[in-house]
Design a protein that fits this description.
The chain contains seven helices and ten strands. By secondary structure, it is an alpha/beta fold. Strands 1-9-8-7-6-3 form a six-stranded mixed beta sheet, sandwiched between helices. It has a two-stranded parallel sheet with strand order 2-10.
Length: 184
């Protein structure tokens, strides 16, 4: 079970205009499980949770993507590159924020807004963790690593509801306790 927010408009667009990407996302949601072994080890540069989601989508033709954008004023050009999108396919942008500092949400939402305004992306998706996972982190002795100032649904929703993504249709997904499996 996933925690889902801001989904009706984004899901309608995905199902109607991006059926292959929609199928990929549904397959991910059905197959993903949060493994204990992914929580009990440090993530380093990229967590095992993020790698699992990336790998699942990369196997289906998604890829990390950065866009070369610029602003032109008369004859003068000002490069304005976007931040990399974790997983991108056919105008669908997906970010995974498992355990970053919560300002990363602002960066992601701003990136979605810009890419949508430039017609490079039609939908933005953010996968993070549901707040209820704190009880699991505490039980595993990992609560300090997954603190209040890191990315989780409680930090994302106020930004989304406050219009952080601009006009970009958003789908926000939270990994819940129901997806947890003890594989150790």
């Amino acid at each position: 079970m996933w925690e889902v927010h801001e989904w009706k408009h984004a899901c309608a667009i995905l199902a109607a205009d991006f059926p292959n990407e929609w199928r990929d996302l549904i397959a991910l949601l059905r197959e993903f499980r949060l493994r204990r072994s992914w929580i009990t080890v440090g993530g380093g540069n990229r967590s095992l949770v993020s790698r699992a989601i990336d790998g699942f989508l990369y196997d289906r033709g998604w890829s990390e993507r950065q866009f070369a954008t610029l602003v032109r004023v008369d004859a003068v050009e000002f490069p304005s590159p976007t931040h990399k999108v974790d997983c991108f396919k056919n105008r669908v942008a997906l970010e995974i924020e498992w355990n970053n500092k919560n300002p990363f949400f602002d960066r992601d939402l701003n990136n979605f807004r810009l890419l949508f305004d430039l017609r490079a992306a039609s939908v933005g998706i953010i996968i993070t963790r549901a707040d209820e996972l704190r009880t699991i982190f505490s039980a595993l002795g990992r609560a300090a690593s997954f603190g209040e100032s890191t990315t989780h649904m409680g930090k994302l929703l106020p930004r989304v509801l406050g219009g952080g993504g601009g006009g970009c249709p958003l789908l926000v997904l939270g990994i819940t306790r129901a997806l947890y499996v003890d594989d150790e």
